[in-house]
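I hope you will forgive my troubling you with a question about protein structure. Here, with my thanks, is the record as I have it:
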Amino acid sequence: MTEFSYTARDTGGQRVSGTITATNRREALAAIAARSLFPVEVKGASAPLDGKQHRRVSAQAMAVAFGQLADLLRAGVPLLRALDVLRQQSTRPALKEVLGQVHHDVEQGASLAEAMGRFPRVFGEMAVSMVRAGGEGGFLEEALSRVAEFTEAQDDLKKRTAGAIAYPAFLAVVGTVVVVVLLVFFVPKFEQVFDSLRAVGELPMMTELVLGASTVVQRAGLYVLAGLVVAGILLRQWLATEAGRLWKDRLKLKLPLAGGIFLSLAVARFCRVLGTLLHNGVPILRSLEISGDATGNRVLSAAIQEAGEDVSSGQRLAGRLAACGHFPPTVVEMISVAEESNTLESVLLGVADSLERRTWRRLEVGVRLIEPVMLLILAGVVLVLVIALLVPVIKMGYTLKV
């Protein structure tokens, strides 16, 4: 038996607080209702885990967990039993702990989506939204399978992207180290040699700039590095706030080249989730609310929410999406035609597939271009340093011959 604290209202509307002992939350609610009280808030005595501070679990592990849960439910295993099986077989302590808390919350009467929503760092907004829709629409198994597919596909995309940019990133690091070493240890040795040319005003401007950069790096390099570290920490803390997240989402859509990729992926997620929900009979307004959260971008989410308000007043979805200015014209046109022909769900799924294929091709081409660009930049910087040091040496040699 567990002791629950509750806040409720009586038949006269007065607020009443107290405690009650019951086996689980569902029984506690029934006991409170039996006293002619209307529960407002019911809390268990045990302190729950802090979901916001809980450490992350790898995307691959979450994809496997979602898929196994879907298979267990599809085989007729009750939800509580399925969660307990997943918890027992999990080899990751963080996931085992989270599944245990989710099992406890569901046992106390919470829905699966509510229990998962307490751990945003583990499950994510898209997974919670899809599970909530599946629970409301009666297709929880399919929703979990979809979440498993989405999670695995996104993890695969991240790994492929990380693997593709590993070499360019290595070049960037090596190039930075080489330039810093040259400026700190190599360039200063030429400064006294060039004093004679500087005295007569014949030292090239490029050489002056290189020598000045060397001086700045030697004298203030550590301070600049410390300042960058502090600025990075402060920026990361600010980006964790709601205003920071909104600014980051706006910036992601405005970035040259990369902004189009971010937008296409977000729109593809929106189309796939909305199409899946409509295909399973979830009402359009509820589907828009859930699919807006699944985009992963607050700017698009706000635009979709406004579109839902217009749809509730009888307007077309395509018109409002076009007015926000973020959705590609081809996508808007296809949605408009699908609304007229009453094939919205199938068209949305097709649009999602097409956007994901095109986006991956663009990303693949962009990543391939990074490698030669980084090589050119590294070679260019080294060439500038060499020319800046060689030209005065050649000039001095020519002067000595004359």
User: Anything to note?
Assistant: The first strand starts at residue 2 and ends at 9. Residues 72 and 82 are 6 Å apart (CA to CA). The chain has a mean pLDDT of 81. The chain is about 75% helix and 5% strand.
